[in-house]
């Protein structure tokens, strides 16, 4: 059985790798089988809020990947050892699982970024995890980040968590305006029934 230290160091890169593999497979599946271009952000000018959130995610993931192979990185970033860091790996896994299930619940309506215009065939998704939260993918992302703070507690990971919260909150407002415009009263009724987060 692997040691707690091994889980703390290699668990996050393994989870990130699995999540990336899943994401790429899902994008290819929707593109080839259903003709849906998931990468909506490619069809319009770059949104600075989405770009900032993406950069934070890339930098944090690179750090978590590099930790096992470059131990001095924790000293550089002043990461404090934490006896219960392995619980953070579990929280990260739960966050990824929630995000994956939420993507599946969205079916062919899932996009990365807002499309330039409302697309034919997009549905208002209110079932699955979306009956409990209007934004379960973002709930999963935030849980992943909370887990990262537990795994590698320090100013760097806490800053990534705080900035992601700010940027995701702004992205959600943009998405809600888009959904309100596209789905009108149906979205407003859903919004009144289901909370933004939990």
From TrEMBL:
Keyword S-adenosyl-L-methionine: no
Known EC number: 2.1.1.100, 2.1.1.334
GO biological process: methylation
TM segment ranges: 12-30, 51-70, 82-101, 139-172
Keyword Ion transport: no
InterPro entries: Phopholipid_MeTrfase (IPR007318)
Its membrane topology: Multi-pass membrane protein
Location relative to the cell: Endomembrane system
UniProt keyword terms in alphabetical order: Membrane, Methyltransferase, Transferase, Transmembrane, Transmembrane helix
An annotated Gene Ontology molecular function: protein C-terminal S-isoprenylcysteine carboxyl O-methyltransferase activity
Protein name: Methyltransferase family protein
Organism, scientific name: Kordiimonas lipolytica
């Amino acid at each position: 059985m692997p040691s707690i230290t091994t889980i703390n160091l290699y668990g996050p890169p393994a989870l990130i790798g699995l999540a990336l593999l899943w994401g790429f497979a899902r994008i290819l599946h929707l593109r080839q089988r259903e003709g849906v271009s998931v990468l909506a952000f490619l069809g319009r000018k770059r949104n600075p809020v989405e770009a900032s959130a993406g950069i934070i995610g890339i930098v944090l993931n690179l750090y978590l990947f590099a930790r096992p192979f470059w131990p001095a990185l924790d000293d550089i970033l002043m990461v404090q050892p934490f006896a219960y860091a392995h619980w953070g790996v579990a929280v990260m896994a739960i966050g990824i699982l929630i995000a994956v299930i939420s993507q599946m619940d969205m079916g062919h309506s899932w996009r990365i970024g807002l499309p330039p215009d409302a697309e034919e065939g997009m549905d208002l998704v209110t079932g699955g995890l979306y009956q409990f939260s209007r934004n379960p993918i973002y709930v999963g992302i935030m849980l992943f980040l909370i887990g990262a703070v537990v795994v590698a507690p320090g100013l760097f990971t806490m800053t990534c968590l705080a900035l992601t919260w700010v940027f995701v909150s702004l992205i959600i407002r943009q998405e809600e305006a888009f959904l309100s415009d596209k789905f009108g009263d149906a979205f407003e009724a859903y919004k009144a029934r289901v909370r933004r987060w939990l």
